[in-house]
Structures are given as C-alpha cells and as structure tokens.
Design goal:
Layout lengths: L12 H13 L4 H18 L5
Amino acid sequence: MDHEVRITLRLPADLHRWLTTQAKSARRSLNSEIVHRLEAERDTSLADGESP
C-alpha cells in the first residue's frame, strides 16, 4: 500500500465473528482479511466493467 488511512468500522457481532474465523483460517489478521476481500470485490467489479 502506498498510503494508509485509519477508519473506525462498526460491524454486526455475527459478521465480526465470521470474518475473524475466515482470517484465522487464511492465517491473516482481521485487517488483512477485510482488505483482501475488499480488493477482491473491487477487482471483480472492475473486470465486470462496473464503475468504481
């Protein structure tokens, strides 16, 4: 990443638990898991021709 921005993110407890489980399974931090999933979604959207 060239530049990072800190944000406060509120998640429903069940979504937080699910993301934490997914992160542990992939051996990533929760932050890295969220970034990974957002980047994957962005890449899919761009490949499908949707505007960012």
